[in-house]
Write a structure and sequence with these properties.
With 319 residues, the protein is α/β, with parallel strands linked by helices. Helices cover 33% and strands 10% of the residues. The structure holds 2-acetamido-2-deoxy-beta-D-glucopyranose and zinc ion. The site of 2-acetamido-2-deoxy-beta-D-glucopyranose has 5 residues, from helix 7.
């Protein structure tokens, strides 16, 4: 337990010392079209090496709001008809990922530049909880199957574009009682974007979650940990609370083999054996990370905690 003041001191040092290079929160998205087992679909949107197979139905109510008839690509457009109220959104300058010299220190409170955590952000938990980003994918059902057998619930931070491509997997997540939260529509670093583009990234992800499983999320995890007070204010106006993490499993490094599963499991065992609590960052984007998620669940042991329970047990995760 003596570790905690040390960690707190370290975090404080990272937050206040503007000279320190920020640790880039690792986050990787690995689209592998060859691995997509769903086969041909009606339309394939192709941008660089990213293939999107829109399979979710585009509902009439969304056509009424947006004037569109199909799901957009990664750069979802801002829809002016929704009349988003931008008054009072703080005017912090946009900054690209790792361009932390453009942030305003403690005032803009960037998490990816300096690990600053907002008043309402959820970053810690008094249990060891698993969270999975970047799904749903073709590999998510393997994880769901395990979780169902073990009667366990976890928190999924889904990408709108992945929900568009794997709506039935998303509905299974919902049916099986997991917490569903947004990780934006197209996995962009939000502080790089204009206010309108940020609204679009969050709003379209909410729309597709609502259209596919009838859920409107209350929690939001920024891709790459990219969030500052401008992004927070916009998210809050959409009813979203920021959730980051304090325990990084680095499971995504399994995908490029820069970390072994033994190293990852060893780290999680250290947490477990030392009574460390917190929010673990994991992914359900490949068979490697899914297999790691299952093994980590075995190490952690049974818990029914989701991120919604971290402030107060039983807090609803939907709006
Ligand atoms: C959610 O979906 C319903 C239709 O099922 C629609 O009437 C409502 O406006 C949607 N709300 C949001 C926030 O997407
Ligand atoms: Zn991600």
């Amino acid at each position: 337990m003596r570790l905690i003041p040390v960690i707190a001191a370290l975090l404080f040092a990272t937050c206040t010392a503007s000279k320190l290079p920020p640790p880039p929160p690792p986050d990787l998205i690995n689209y592998d079209p060859d691995k997509d087992s769903l086969g041909a679909s009606d339309a394939v949107i192709h941008r660089s090496n990213i293939f999107i197979h829109p399979r979710a139905e585009f509902p009439q109510w969304l056509t009424d709001i947006t004037g569109l008839h199909q799901w957009p690509g990664l750069d979802a457009p801002y829809v002016s008809g929704m009349n988003f109220d931008f008054t009072g959104i703080p005017q912090f300058q946009q900054y690209d990922q790792r361009h932390c010299e453009r942030t305003y220190g403690i005032n803009s409170c960037s998490f990816d530049c300096g690990l600053c955590v907002g008043h309402n952000d959820i970053r810690h938990c008094h249990r060891l909880v698993q969270t999975f980003d970047d799904g749903p994918t073709a590999d998510t059902p393997t994880l769901l199957h395990y979780l169902k057998g073990a009667n366990r619930k976890v928190s999924f931070f889904v990408l709108g574009i992945q929900v568009v491509s794997f709506p039935e997997v998303f509905r299974s997540m919902h049916r099986e009682g997991h917490l569903l939260a947004t990780h934006t529509y197209g996995h962009t670093h939000l502080p790089s974007l204009t206010n309108e583009q940020i609204v679009a990234q969050l709003q379209w992800s909410i729309w597709v979650m609502n259209a596919t499983a009838g859920v409107i999320p209350r929690f939001f995890r920024p891709p790459f940990g990219g969030v500052d007070n401008r992004v927070r204010a916009i998210a809050e106006r959409l009813g979203l609370t920021v959730v980051v993490w304090d325990l990084d499993t680095n499971d995504w490094r399994l995908n490029d083999q820069s970390r072994s599963s033994d190293e990852i499991y060893g780290q999680v065992r250290v947490w477990k054996n030392n009574g460390v609590k917190g929010i673990m960052l994991e992914h359900d984007n490949t068979l490697f990370t899914v297999a790691a998620g299952i093994e980590i669940a075995e190490i952690v042991g049974k818990t029914d905690y989701t991120v919604a329970d971290c402030n107060r047990k039983g807090t609803p995760w939907y709006q």
